[in-house]
Amino acid sequence: MLIKTNRLLLKEITENDFSSLFDLLTSEDVKKTYLVPDFKSEEDFVKMFRHLQNLSQIPDSHTAGIFLNEILIGLFHKVEIHGDRVEVGYAIHPKYKNQGYATEALRAGIAYFFENGFREVYAGAFKTNSASIRVMEKAGMKKTKMKASVNYRGEEHPCVYYSIKSKISAEK
Predict the structure, then answer these.
(1) pLDDT of residue 151
(2) Using an 8 Å Cβ cutoff, are 93 and 128 in contact?
(3) How crowded is residue 18: how many other Cβ atoms within 10 Å of its Cβ?
(4) Which pick of 17, 91, 109, 128 has the fewest CB atoms within 10 Å?
(5) What is d(CA 127, CA 150) in angstroms, rounded to the nearest whole number?
(6) pLDDT averaged per 10 residues in sequence order, the chain, 172 residues
(7) Residues contacting residue 111 through CB under 8 Å, at least 6 positions apart
């Protein structure tokens, strides 16, 4: 996956991104809402790094680092595919929040999936994650009736979902 926006590049993760990805995935702020394990050891993180790095190099995995000036500031990825519908996930390091980067990356990801034949892109967030909900709304997504509940870090979290359909599927 290689996507260029005005300010960002969504691309594969390399060895040079190890410390930036570590900072992202161990950030207490990120861990509140982005489903990531607690790493018990450096080896646990290395395994996760290698997994994400490998996924980012496989075109059909739809996984990419979000880069600003060659610095990894976030992640964008496919969660699940259901026919011509795809669920996506994303995270931005807290240092880069409130600057429009998540919205820019999500819009670019939506366009990428539509260009690759998908008819609907959707994403979920904890009901209390107002920042992610705003990102989805700014990216043109609308709230759906779909709901779920996720047990994360010992707590039950009600989730809401937002979706956007391609103009092609809207015309049908």
Answers:
(1) 95
(2) no
(3) 16
(4) 128
(5) 11
(6) 94 96 95 92 94 91 95 96 95 96 97 95 96 97 95 95 83 48
(7) 3
105-108 long-range contacts (CB < 8 A, ≥24 apart) are 105/5, 105/8, 105/10, 105/66, 105/74, 105/76, 106/76, 106/135, 106/136, 106/139, 107/5, 107/139, 107/140, 108/3, 108/4, 108/5, 108/8, 108/10
CB hemisphere CA count around 76 (13 angstroms):
30
One-letter amino acid of 86: V
56: its two tokens = 């980012």
85 contacts 119 by C-beta, under 8 angstroms? yes
Per DSSP, the three-state class of 44 is helix
Q: CA 41 → CA 25, 36, 67, 120, 152, distances in Å?
A: 13, 14, 26, 38, 20
- 81, two tokens: 């595919």
Interacting residues of 30 by C-beta distance below 8 A, sequence separation 6+ = 24, 36, 91, 93, 94
What pLDDT does residue 172 have? 47
Cα-based distances in Å from 157 to 136, 151, 154: 18, 6, 10
Q: Model-level pTM?
A: 0.93
SS3 149: strand
Q: For residue 107, give every residue at least 6 positions away whose Cβ sits within 8 Å of its Cβ, in sequence order, or none.
A: 5, 139, 140
